[in-house]
Amino acid sequence: MSRPLPYSPDLERPDPNEPELFERIAAVMRAGGELARDGEGPGGRLSHVQTLAAFKGELVVHDLPPELAQGAFARPRTYPVVARLSHLPGEDLDNRGVSSPRGLSIKLFGVDGRPLADHQGGTQDFVLETAPVFNARCPRTFLAAISTVEASAPFPQFVKHGVSAAARAANRVLETVGAPSANLDVIGHPAIHPLSESYYSQAPMRWGDYVAKLGAFPAPAQSDLRFRADEPDALAHAASDRIARHGAEWTLAAQLRTDADAMPIENARTLWPEELSSYRPVATLRFPPQNALAPSRVRDVEALSFSPAHSLEAHRPLGGIMRARLALYTQLGCERRRQAGLPTTEPASPDVIAD
């Protein structure tokens, strides 16, 4: 296996117009959120509105070789974790007809190390989604993509059901020839059980002395679960029912950057070839059986902010899409919590989340 390439601040090549692009993206997301809420008032999330599970567990870091033993993973230890499973859209959609990507956001507590400049420290968030790559290469193309998606908010549910079904069918055809579409996946994600999904950082991050992408892969016991999309909240009920009986587990794995040309920093749409660098296990993410849809639990987890900006410098998000996330999650997340009367500071421990 090739040696991992070293991290350097010079790896990033920001677009000089990024601040303006970020403001335009934020404006489109706010407008789409207002349409989706249809006058219900401010204070809601602008994406990943539907909570599928809110749960507490632990991240057990493995005994790792030097190139993987970096940042929060520098030594074997166990972190308390709070996590949220979610559905991508910025509105509550009927799961019987619309299938979109899912997200797994995890917050580690008791993390040591130098935080990013605007992060108070003590926590490390990893925000993961089901697509291994982002559906736009850079902030400029993301602005065009998000404008199209947010414009669909006023359409009736039955229209979205039909579009989603057509997109799923088209993506199945593309998958048979090894060319699934990230754009079609946004509205036509396969009907997979949320606990059987793999989740990805999509874009790169610093990995201490190196650079990596991160993935979370389901344990064998939950890798091929089935569910029926026969009710509006089928995804949440499928996830919470399984967690209540068996808990949940994923293996966290890092894909180290080993080839500058094949593994670009500034193009988040590029799939890094696993034949050049495979995902290598670094930790086990484990959740015991629990009620992951208890109203008090969901309320407390909804009050949190999961953001790439909640990070050690050793895991700094990299590339244009990650810089956009740093700006947007911070700005829009603070707005959401202020409008809802929620604290904007990071919790010191998972004890703030109801058991």
From TrEMBL:
InterPro entries (UniProt xref): Catalase, Catalase_sf
PANTHER family: DOMAIN PROTEIN, PUTATIVE (AFU_ORTHOLOGUE AFUA_5G01990)-RELATED (PTHR36195:SF4), DOMAIN PROTEIN, PUTATIVE (AFU_ORTHOLOGUE AFUA_5G01990)-RELATED-RELATED (PTHR36195)
Protein name according to UniProt: Catalase
Superkingdom as given in the UniProt entry: Bacteria
GO BP term, example: response to oxidative stress
Gene Ontology MF terms: catalase activity; heme binding
